[in-house]
TrEMBL record:
It catalyses: 3'-phosphoadenylyl sulfate + H2O = adenosine 5'-phosphosulfate + phosphate; adenosine 3',5'-bisphosphate + H2O = AMP + phosphate; adenosine 2',5'-bisphosphate + H2O = AMP + phosphate. This is 3'(2'),5'-bisphosphate nucleotidase. It comes from the Eukaryota. InterPro entries: DPNP, Inositol_monoP_metal-BS, Inositol_monoP_superfamily, Inositol_monophosphatase-like, Inositol_monophosphatase_CS. It comes from Mytilinidion resinicola. The lineage of its organism: Eukaryota, Fungi, Dikarya, Ascomycota, Pezizomycotina.
């Protein structure tokens, strides 16, 4: 299969990073800071980014990475830096072979800062570039909802590999859209799913483990004959997508079930495995540009599970422009057969505004 080594590296790197995020998740203090755009970032975000980029740079030294975070705050804040360094050192896979694929532990604090800062690529249409969101849905992470560790490889601007680690999704109860929030999520028992896809080669899911990869199974979107029976997913945060427009679209489609609100790319993962049918993300702001790391992995996973993902006007998401999807507005993800019907209504609702 194409990109077999890249896929394996990405799966193990994401799995190792979830050891760290889970540890932070269970801790009382998550070391939360506020970024310049007022969005939250935690010690988990920094630690996971450092671990994943170190692994990429070990295996593919000349690849670039577009990562959400950087080391600026750590360079000026010693307490924060040593707190994260401790976590990073503790996050090792139980399996020596798997750990060796990732290049083993990061050597020292400098190595951690260098890895974090290697996520500053400007992106673009040429060459091999990884898109990394070390914790997607930080607000979900903080409130005890869903979050995802997201990694994708783009080659010449096209997403060819996507991996999503979803520590709070149920392993077995595949049909259930898990939106529970709070205490029961901190019990990792029975939770934690690793999703992956390679362009042209299908999508799989497997339980997250602490060592070598578990065996994977193919995932497919749910066949949906009657659109009125659809379940649609949307963000928890009303500031991230328009709940009003999404409700109007669902109404026009004759959908009667209430929306399922979930943080992070766990929405893409959930519809890809047949828990839910549609993911609607209609823009709130005229100026917000979606980030490539918030979509790259999810889009290839849904595509390989039998879905179509476009923006709200039906354009393919263009990952080749830079760090943001500046050529697109919103996201509509649906099974291939019904995507045109959904898109028609999305455009009607947007055009009537
Ligand atoms: N105004 C906005 N519109 C759409 N997405 C946003 C907006 N502001 C932040 N985001 C991003 O939405 C993602 C989470 O989506 P969801 O709500 O579906 O879980 C986050 O990565 C978050 O970025 P950030 O990392 O800056 O918080
Ligand atoms: Mg994100
Ligand atoms: Mg993030
Ligand atoms: Mg963020």
């Amino acid at each position: 299969m194409a990109y077999e080594n890249e896929l394996h590296l990405a799966q193990l790197a994401v799995q190792r990073a979830t050891l760290l995020t889970r540890r932070v998740y269970a801790a009382k203090s998550k070391g939360t800071l506020s970024k310049s755009d007022a969005s939250p970032v935690t010690i988990g975000d920094f630690g996971a980014q450092a671990l994943i980029i170190a692994a990429i740079k070990h295996a593919f030294p000349s690849d670039e990475v577009v990562g959400e975070e950087d080391a600026d705050d750590l360079r000026t804040n010693e307490a924060l830096r040593s707190q994260i360094w401790e976590l990073v050192q503790e996050a090792t896979l139980d399996d020596a072979e798997a750990e060796a694929v990732l290049g083993g532990p990061i050597k020292d604090v400098d190595g951690m800062l260098t890895a974090l800062d290697a996520g500053r690529s400007a992106g673009g249409a040429k060459g091999r570039i990884w898109a990394l969101d070390p914790i997607d849905g930080t607000k979900g992470f903080l409130r005890g909802g869903q979050y995802a560790v997201c990694l994708a490889l783009m080659v010449d601007g096209e997403v060819v590999v996507g991996v999503l680690g979803c520590p709070n999704l149920p392993v077995d109860d595949k049909e259930r859209l898990d939106t529970s929030i709070g205490a029961d999520q901190t019990d990792a028992e029975g939770k934690g799913v690793l999703f992956s896809a390679v362009l042209g080669h299908g999508a799989t899911s497997r339980p997250l483990t602490r060592g070598a990869l578990a065996e994977g199974t193919t995932i497919k979107m749910k066949p949906l004959e009657d659109i009125t029976q659809a379940t649609f997913c949307e963000s928890v945060e009303a500031g991230h997508s328009s709940h009003g427009d999404q409700a109007a679209i669902a109404g026009k489609l004759g959908i009667t079930k209430e929306s399922v609100r979930m943080d992070s790319q766990a929405k893409y993962a959930s519809i890809a495995r047949g828990a839910g049918d549609l993911y609607l993300r209609l823009p709130i702001s005229k100026t917000y540009q979606e980030k490539i790391w918030d979509h790259a992995a999810g889009v290839v996973i849904v595509g390989e599970a039998g879905g179509t993902v476009t923006d709200a006007w039906g354009k393919k998401l263009d990952f080749s422009i830079g760090r943001t999807l500046s050529g697109n507005k919103g996201v509509v993800a649906a099974p291939k057969a019904i995507h045109p019907e959904v898109l028609k209504v999305v455009i009607e609702v947007l055009s009537s505004k």
